[in-house]
């Protein structure tokens, strides 16, 4: 959306700046030698971004050098510091996805003392070594004891409610995507921002830019994205609940054209792009809410087949199954196995992490076998084995970005999954068709599982990940 159009929703955005936490990810190479990187990394590295003409509606507090630094700590540190230095200029605070903004707040919680020291001394910590960041920050950073004292006073209270508006009092709204998997973060963002409006402006992917929200200040539950018909050739597959995976083939006869979708119906998005994807199933399920001229508008319903997502990771059922299988192989020497499992994306703490509930069966009935499993660090190794088996986006988030915390296995006592089934049946599930949910989020189910936990184990180390091999995996 042209930035000055924002003035029709929020006046005066040309009179201040945006505190946007923006990051690049490491590049990888495909087996054929092509560079592969997420779309925003391409954009930030492009001339288009770096040599953008001055636009008073689009002035960021973050120096471009900080955005372009691939080291997540240095980049975040510099962006936070510059945001604090210009705190009264800030009119909006944003990241692409809500999870990123929570990470930034967590960073402030962990590093405010160092940041305040730098502000008081007017000198950047030696932990930031990137020379271009140091140069850019030096232009802004002068000793300012009053600001250092103010930030320290706000952060040392131990009360983080409304921290965004306390530190950046002129903030009018948050610019973050909180639709789809990101909706889980709305209550926490409301807490940190004192209930500021959240604007979800765009719906896009690395494959293609799909649509815009023409009412950016509406409530997150009301957000519809208007498809931009010139971005690709858009087609829609009536959503029938088959188990197709993103990118899989399409039954052409079923496809509906952009102008022919019907209000109220759900479809899967299929794109043919200028870059060469042909009838590619994105994997998103959308519901038609109306039309803007002839362009349909959609509510994002969900991503197909995704069980777990903390940030940009998307873990499906098959992948989770494979990870559980490869980890449970470590139990064999103990004559134990996993009889049932389910999972949960725990975002109560930042960074969020995957929790996998395991019910174990010790084939050797002696209690010592079960004890040995929980005692000898075996389950910690199982956590790591699961992480090693997950996709490269997950591992990159764990290793390079620190945006996902160590995976946790919670062992539940024998019979817990039967109780889970009893609960589902008591709520009307069919006993014949009951399937163990491979991911749970309902509070009563989580309470049931958590009340049966006998031990909890965390991955002791980050999984293997390297930019070099990521694209091959
Ligand atoms: P990626 O290409 O990895 O950046 O992921 C693109 C995917 O992120 C989309 O296909 C959606 O599943 C999800 N996504 C992107 N924008 C939004 C949005 N505004 N609301 C909900 N989900 C989104």
TrEMBL record:
Q: Which UniProt keywords apply?
A: Ligase
Quote the cellular component terms of the Gene Ontology held in the record.
Answer: cytoplasm
Q: Where is the GH3 middle domain?
A: 225-303
Q: Does the keyword Ligase apply?
A: yes
Which region is the signal sequence? none
Q: Per its record, what are the GO molecular function terms?
A: acid-amino acid ligase activity
The answer to whether keyword Ligase applies is yes
Residue ranges occupied by any GH3 C-terminal domain in the UniProt entry:
319-441
**What is stated as this protein's family in its record?**
Belongs to the IAA-amido conjugating enzyme family.
Q: What is this protein called?
A: Indole-3-acetic acid-amido synthetase
Species of origin: Musa troglodytarum
